[in-house]
Specification:
Order of helices and strands: EHEEHEHEHEHEHEHEEEHEEHEEHEH
Structural class: alpha/beta
Number of domains: 2
Distance between the termini: 34 Å
CATH superfamily of the largest domain: DHBP synthase
Radius of gyration: 19 Å
CATH class of the largest domain: Alpha Beta
Number of helices: 11
Number of strands: 16
Largest sheet: 12 strands, mixed
CATH architecture of the largest domain: Alpha-Beta Complex
Helix content: 25-40%
């Protein structure tokens, strides 16, 4: 594959990736959720390079990825005990903690807010890059702003080829959707972005109610209405509506239910019917069908249950107009 962005693999190319990070460059690397666009979170120019590559608004904060729980105190202050409890239980893993930031942390990282979001990812590649570079790494998803999140290196190149220095090809991201973000600075912990870890699990670990915040307030990654979108227009239809619809040859479908449709076979992607397996393949399905340059893609409406809440969050933003 011809590319202006270098394709690296670990461990052989780890020194090259470390050199790029320490020089203030951006490197895309797999986390267990999606591929992240990593740069030195303590380097103002490096962080600005993330925003430039993505075309991301400066008001949209970034998650800082760290190597150990001990690193929390470098980036955050007034850390409540519940934050340590969650970190010890879920890290490394797809949970991000919103905390009060240390005064030195750049407003460029936090979108001008007095809070910072921290996470330890469970990706070996990402952890190796953090440890070897000796840096906390700011890393939003490695795609152009509002475009489909990437779950493999090919997705990254489709969006950012020539706009970043390198992508580390670590294979497919295992989880497939972005981390849960929880605000632990309030009396009642609040989930600001639903993700792989739900409020039931968090409530059990904390021994208190955990709620979802739906009325604005603090800005976090993934909170804009239109997000994760392909170039192809998207509409949501129920299973009944899909089965009764007559499709043109320029229309496509992503579904999870087994059904007989009039859509062209090559334009129909059927995903697994469990939330975890659906998550692993959803963004890839969007990437696949977007390459067909269809006039519209119809997504089967997901079940309205707690198990599908995070995915409904993503799908609603994909289909927003």
């Amino acid at each position: 594959m011809q590319t202006n962005t270098s394709i690296l693999t670990f461990p052989n190319d780890l020194p090259r990736a470390v050199s790029l990070i320490q020089s203030g460059e951006c490197v895309a690397v797999k986390t267990e959720t999606v591929y992240g666009l990593a740069a030195d979170a303590s380097n103002e120019n490096a962080v600005k390079a993330i925003f430039k590559a993505k075309g991301r608004p400066a008001s949209n904060p970034l998650i800082v990825h760290i190597a150990s729980i001990d690193d929390m105190e470098k980036w955050a202050r007034d850390i409540p005990e519940r934050a340590y409890l969650l970190a010890k239980h879920y890290w490394p893993g797809p949970l991000s903690l919103l905390l009060k930031k240390q005064p030195w942390v750049s407003d460029t990282v936090t979108g001008g807010q007095d809070t910072v979001v921290l996470r330890i990812p469970s990706s070996d590649d990402f952890l190796a890059l953090i440890a070897s570079s000796g840096r906390g790494l700011a890393a939003p998803s490695a795609n152009k702003y509002k475009f489909i999140s990437p779950t493999n290196a090919e997705h990254v190149l489709a969006s950012l080829n020539g706009r970043i220095s390198a992508v580390v090809d670590g294979g497919k991201a295992e989880v497939g959707i972005e981390s849960t973000i929880i605000d632990v600075t309030t009396d009642t912990p609040l989930i600001l972005r639903p993700g792989p870890i739900d409020h039931h699990s968090l409530s059990v670990v904390l021994g208190c109610d955990v709620k979802y915040k739906n009325d604005g307030g603090v800005t976090v990654p993934g909170s804009v209405l239109q997000h994760y979108q392909p170039n192809t227009p998207v509409k949501l239809l129920s299973r009944t509506e899909l089965e009764s619809k007559t499709f043109s040859f320029e229309e496509g479908v992503i579904s999870f239910s087994p059904m007989s449709l009039s859509v062209m076979q090559d334009n129909h992607i059927q995903l697994p019917s469990t939330p975890a397996e659906f998550s692993q393949s959803f963004y890839d399905a969007l990437h696949q069908i977007d390459k067909k340059r269809l006039t519209c893609v119809f997504i089967e409406a997901l079940p309205n249950t707690d198990a599908w809440l995070a995915l409904n969050n993503r799908v609603s933003r994909v289909a927003a107009s």
